[in-house]
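User: If you would, consider this record:
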Amino acid sequence: MRSTTLKLRFEGLDPRLSYFLSELGGEALCRSEPEIEQKDLYPASWVKLFWAVQAFLVGTPCSDLIFRLLAHSSDQAGQELVDFLVGTDSEDYPETKCRRQLLTSFWEERGYAGIGLGHKTFLGEYSALDAWLREDLGPNKISFAQIHKLWSFVLLENNLKPEQREIFLSALTRKATSAPEIPDTPNFQASLLGFGFGFPESFTFLAKAGWRDWLVCDSACFSLQGGRKVLVSVQADFSSQEASIAAIRGYSARLFEVFAEEGLIENISH
């Protein structure tokens, strides 16, 4: 699978859709534009992946919260886990600001330069506070390169304990034979990638999607023939959520058609 071949196959996509494709822990395979993987992106619920892994690494005893956060993208679990990680929000705003900066500095110290994870991304009792934090700390931001680095951190480098890794894998495993849920429903948990292709029941992949207003994103890891693992992250920022979802599904269709034509994935009947 050559990068130049893939690039030619993905020409002509709408520029409002950004994507980055790479091997797990390896080389870049295809990107929507030069250096797109280094560009700061609004991450929506991708921040929950980083909060969950941080909770594992510091030994936070919140396995149920972490599972709900990853499997169901639960905002309530996110509220509670952030408070576990940095302490309950203080009435003293400067103190709260310093505590929330710990969410970002934790990963900066591990080589994720320029990342931003300091505020919650959902409404609720913290909405006013997080509006102030967003103004002072700047918006949350993650690059495609950073989310791919996190996948490798967990899946290749054995940085989690076996029981933690099992929670991570079980929570994020999706079946391409299941109907995707729509992001504006309370139980949104699925990936938008890989649906509608007649995959066998045995085909599963790891994925975490997110959305905010009309912006929709998805990041997934799946295996090709011969055991090679591929990471794909995509973000669509169209004029409506429906248009963004349609763009990601269109990209997914082209992606898996290419893999099928090159004999890298079997049993696809689109």
